[in-house]
Amino acid sequence: MGQALWRLSPRQQQQLQEELADQLTESGGGRRDQGRDGGGSQRRAPQYCYSPDIYHLLKTRRGKEQHGFIDLEMLPPELGITILSYLNATDLCLAGCVWQDLGHDEYLWQGLCKSTWGHCSIYNKRLPAGFSYRRLYLQLDEGSLTFNANPQEGISYFMSKGILVDHPKELAKFIFYTRRLNWKMLRIYLDERRDVLDELVTLHNFSNQFLPNALRDFFRHIHAPEERGEYLETLITKFSHRFCACNPGLVRDLGLSPDAVYVLCYSLILLSIDLTSPHVKNKMSKREFIRNTRRAAHNVSEDFVGHLYDNIYLIGHVAA
């Protein structure tokens, strides 16, 4: 929702400021300074900016002499969903006890499910009569907690509830659009399910992205292992092929290949460690990086490798 919808006119702002100042004076037992033209000091009201909806809510509440927080049901739906999205399942159930009607609002629970777990197989099914998105939210939360303790048991829980289908593409979409999965458990699961990893890589679109930025985006969804090994080599290999497939023009113009991108990715990771680690005293210079990288990737231009160094130097680690 645009900011213009949440902005008061100057006249409404002035009226609200005067009412707030009156309320602060009455609650503090003081008196307002009279005679604005008489040179007396006047308390300046704080510069609040409320939407017209919230303005009328405050005005109505003052008229009824209500105290405490605004009833969440009286707020705009977009604001209510934003507030509730910060709560976990337990807090949402407690909130549903306070706001009875809101706690049984299926549209609200549907929005919370899809904003937290962006893709589930059950979303594309024909839902039976009496289906409850509130119950689905609790099951998704329970399954995510189970996954963060044991990935295989978590996926089995989702399948037993009909939330997910045992298909690599469906599982990859669920992982890609979910915010609640622990990255360490996710790394263990993807290391065991390479078919899901393959589908997860294809969900990334690296078109028109600079190589270090694309690598950061990749490691943001698929976290790199802490030590060099076969799994890291597999990730970089899959990323290299996907990056070249998404940028055929760049590959043609710069003479890149999956093998060249593979070498550049390793160079970027080593450079990131060199420049960001406090244990490395003598940092690699730009000239050294260009020389070392071009020894392994002969077809890559010196200017392109120099831009790679500048990106790491200014932005930071590619796998942080």
Automatic annotation (TrEMBL):
Record-level Gene Ontology MF annotations: guanyl-nucleotide exchange factor activity
Biological-process GO terms, alphabetical: regulation of ARF protein signal transduction
UniProt-annotated stretches for the region Disordered: 20-47
InterPro entries in alphabetical order: F-box-like_dom_sf (IPR036047), F-box_dom (IPR001810), FBXO8_F-box (IPR048003), Sec7_C_sf (IPR023394), Sec7_dom (IPR000904), Sec7_dom_sf (IPR035999)
Domain of life: Eukaryota
Gene3D superfamilies, sorted: 1.10.220.20, 1.20.1280.50, Arf Nucleotide-binding Site Opener,domain 2 (1.10.1000.11)
SMART domains in the record: Sec7 (SM00222)
Residues of the SEC7 domain: 139-315
Protein name: F-box protein 8
Organism for this UniProt entry: Poecilia formosa (Amazon molly)
